[in-house]
Design goal:
The chain is α/β, with parallel strands linked by helices. Helix content is 45%, strand content 16%. The protein is built from twelve helices and eleven strands. The strands form two sheets. Strands 8-7-4-3-2-1-11-9-10 form a nine-stranded parallel sheet, sandwiched between helices. α1 packs parallel to α12, α2 packs parallel to α3 and α3 crosses α5.
Length: 346
C-alpha cells in the first residue's frame, strides 16, 4: 500500500499555542518521511480551533524545506474562497520549491462561517469551485491566459513560475454525496480523495459509487488510486488506546458537529463544554467510533481493519495521527509503532 499522513493541526482549548502546534506538525512530517510514508497532506480551515490550516500552503512550503522525498498534498484547498491567480501562483511556487512533490486536492468545504467570513455566498460555491479550478489549471498549463467567467475576469496573463511537474501537479476532488461535484470530477478527469470524517462504510460507498459511475460512463477509474484517510492511532494495549484517544476523538467529532451548526460566527472564542451543556449534546460513543469511524487499536487490530480495506481495493491509505489534542509525544510514539508493527503487514 501507499501510505500517507494527514493533519488539520487541531487546537483544542487549554492546549499548546499555535506556534508549537504548527512546529510539531512539521516535525511529524519529517518523522513520516524517515519512517517510509509516501506523502503528507494538510487541510485548509479558517477561523476555528478545528484546525490551524488557514494558510496550509505556507506550512507546506516550510515542510518542503525540511524534507527531501516525501510527497506533499492538500486535502483539501477551498478554491471558492481564493483568488484563482494567487492560488495558481502559490501552488506552482510550492511545486517548484518542493522539487515537483505537490498534489493538489480541492473541495467545496461546508456551508457556514468560513464562507461567511470570506463574504462568499454558499449558493454560488459549486460554480465558484469549478470556475476557480479551471482558471488555476489554465494558468498552470497555458500561455496568454484570458478568462471571462461569472465571477472572474482575467486579461491576458502568464503564470511565472509554472509548476515543475508537467503538465501540472496531480489534482484530486474531495469525495462527496453531491451529484454535481461527482459529475464534475468525472467530466474533468480527476480522481477523488476520501477524508477521515465520514463513517468508514459511508466513505467506502462514496468511493465505490464514483468508480461505478465512472465505469458506466466509459471512464477509467480505479479505487486503488483514491487516497483514503482515517483517524489512526496504535498503542500496545486496548487499555492504553482508550486512555490516550477517547477524549481526543470525542473532541474531534464534537467539534465537527459544533462547527457545522454555526453559519455566521465561529466557535473559537467559546467553550465546547458549554455548547454541549446548553444544547444537550452528547459526545460520540467511544466504541461506536472504534467500530465505525476510526482505525484505532493495538497493532493486530489496526492490521485487521486496514487489510479489510485492502481487500476491497483501497491501496492508498492515509493516517490522521494528530487529532483532538493528542500530545506530540503520543503522536510520534504511535507513528513509530505503526511503522514497526503495522506497515510490514499491509
Amino acid at each position: 500500500m501507499r501510505l500517507a499522513t494527514l493533519s488539520h493541526i487541531p487546537w483544542p482549548e487549554n492546549n499548546l499555542e499555535p506556534r508549537a502546534l504548527i512546529a510539531n506538525a512539521c516535525d511529524e512530517v519529517v518523522l513520516a518521511e524517515h519512517l517510509g510514508f509516501d506523502s503528507a497532506w494538510f487541510a485548509e480551515h479558517h477561523f476555528s480551533r478545528y484546525g490551524l490550516g488557514s494558510s496550509s500552503l505556507m506550512v507546506m512550503s516550510h515542510i518542503a524545506a525540511m524534507t527531501k522525498t516525501i510527497e506533499l498534498g492538500t486535502a483539501v484547498l477551498l478554491p471558492a474562497l481564493h483568488n484563482p491567480i494567487k492560488l495558481a501562483e502559490d501552488t506552482a511556487t510550492l511545486d517548484v520549491l518542493s522539487g515537483g512533490r505537490l498534489s493538489v486536492g480541492f473541495g467545496r468545504g461546508t456551508e457556514g462561517y468560513e464562507y461567511h467570513g470570506y463574504m462568499v455566498d454558499w449558493e454560488e460555491s459549486q460554480r465558484r469551485f469549478r470556475e476557480t479550478i479551471q482558471i488555476v489549471k489554465n494558468l498552470w498549463t497555458q500561455t496568454d491566459v484570458e478568462y471571462d467567467g461569472e465571477f472572474h475576469k482575467i486579461p491576458k496573463t502568464n503564470l511565472v513560475p509554472r509548476p515543475l511537474q508537467n503538465p501540472h501537479p496531480s489534482v484530486f476532488i474531495a469525495a462527496t454525496r453531491t451529484e454535481e461535484t461527482l459529475q464534475y470530477a468525472l467530466q474533468s478527469g480527476h480522481m477523488i480523495l476520501s477524508g477521515p470524517v465520514a463513517d468508514t462504510e459511508d466513505a467506502i460507498n462514496m468511493c465505490q459509487n464514483f468508480i461505478d459511475v465512472a465505469s458506466k460512463s466509459g471512464s477509467k477509474a480505479d479505487i486503488s488510486e483514491i487516497p483514503f484517510f482515517r483517524y489512526v492511532y496504535v498503542a500496545e494495549s486496548e487499555e492504553q488506546v482508550k486512555e490516550d484517544t477517547e477524549i481526543p476523538l470525542q473532541w474531534t467529532f464534537d467539534m465537527i458537529k459544533w462547527r457545522r451548526s454555526l453559519l455566521v460566527e465561529s466557535e473559537v472564542n467559546h467553550s465546547i463544554s458549554e455548547w454541549k451543556q446548553q444544547n444537550e449534546v452528547e459526545s460520540s460513543n467511544f466504541d461506536d467510533l472504534l467500530n465505525n469511524r476510526v482505525i484505532v487499536g493495538t497493532p493486530d487490530q489496526c492490521i485487521e481493519k486496514i487489510l479489510a480495506l485492502k481487500e476491497i481495493g483501497i491501496d492508498y491509505f492515509g493516517c490522521n495521527f494528530a487529532f483532538g489534542g493528542l500530545s506530540h509525544e503520543k503522536v510520534t510514539k504511535g507513528m513509530k509503532l505503526f511503522a514497526s508493527e503495522v506497515m510490514p503487514h499491509i
